[in-house]
Amino acid sequence: MTSFETFLNQHDEEAWSGALTTLLRSIHEVDRNATQIWFSFYPLGLFQALQRAEDPEKLAQQLLIQGNYRLADQIDSSHAFLYGHRYWPEVKRETEKHAREFVEGESLLSDQILSVAQRAAKAPKVDQSLVIGITAVAFMTIRQVGLDAFAKAPGKMKIDRKHAHKSADQVLRERAKDDGQGMFGFLRTVNKKWTVTYDENDDSARYRLNHVQDLAWGAADDRSKNWREVDPRRIEGPIPVECRSASCGTCWVGVLGGAEKLSDVAAREGKKIKEFGYIDTPEPKPLIRLACQAQAYGAVSIVIPPWNGVFGKYLKNQKPES
What we know:
two-stranded antiparallel ribbon; 7 strands; about 40% helix; Ubiquitin-like (UB roll); alpha+beta; single chain; five-stranded mixed β-sheet
């Protein structure tokens, strides 16, 4: 283990959370939500629990984990929904260089991330704020997969040229735009329809739903693909779903844009989402939602995680009592 990996291992969940909180004020608006969502999709606590387990596969089954939860299998792709993914080759290169040259006694975790982001922004000549989030992702990826595996990944961007050329402001405008409802749309109530985008890097990755319809029910009407072939968890539509009653946790999603256009988290969703382990917050409109409970009052942009599980209670029970 390198000295940099040892340094990263000395930071627990609380320390990483503190570093992320410090960084958020410097991250461009286009990636502020996305960065927090990524850290919820790949929680350090779950990784550590599986790492410590005598039989990780058995524990994963016990926690009802489905899909691809291993960050080691997605080093170059887990963060494709971040705008900063466009600069992944530069960020990966500078992060690896920093890790190799790391000397004990260097600055705080957040300061190191900012320093690497500053260097990574020079080659593509972009604002540093656009690469801070993806640099934080790179650091956590090394924490979970190790420097050797990180270095062996090709370090290629996973989006096409057309979407890579979109400006951050353009992406933000698209997230904020609501569907037009026609000449007399202002008179409509129940007949309004909204667009849900579930992959901003794919123009076909969107569906329409009715006003106040929940995200999962709207997705079920999308029969454009054989969704089971795409992902066995997707029994109907692009969003994986099983129960429709907030009991299974299969339909969790991250909200990149439009969180304010979704219904408030009701008591059951708030309780269950903590039990699943996805997020623990009293916010009425958080960035992680259960699609079967979140009703839309406007167009939203979401990202669908490649896995789901029920691990909140388990992780809570693993923590020593203070």
